[in-house]
Amino acid sequence: MFAFQRFIGLTYLMALFFYAYAIIPECFEQDEKNNSEKVVLSLPVSRKDIVVSRYLLVFITIIIGNITFFTLNFIGKYLPFSYESISVNSPLFAFVVFYIVLFYSICFPVMFKVGKHKARGLIFVLFFATFFGLPTLINAITGSSNELLSRILSFAIRSSNMQITVILLLLTGLVCITSLLVSLLFYKQREF
Length: 192
Fold this sequence. Notes:
single chain; mainly alpha; globular
């Protein structure tokens, strides 16, 4: 967290993304390793409940990650070396939530279809695309003369923080619900 303090938005994004990446795939891994799904499915729990619980795990992880991030940020103010406190505005928060949900909305359907172990390659590629692809994408968008991108940037500049936050959170909901429905379809067809 302290290493990237000059890149405030990137620090916040990476801190929460690393945290989520450390927790969520490990839950799938442990369930697969211990054959937990077979045991859980023998209980009065539906497949729908299992899928929904994984998506709730993403949001719980984001909440706990934020609490941890802001606690460390608060403690950082009192450390004996120079540290600039990181402030997070609502559009940045909404973007980070959107980005993490988008990542897992791509990974979860594949994980529910073939299992975490077989989906490991996709997760690995997406994880590293976050580090190399996101900065490249941002540079491409800001340096592009594409009419659509220019309109989107123009809209974002004219919009208030609240409008951007609401739009990002609505997109997050749409992406999450779509992915949830696909995951439910795949998981219902999966055999153990």
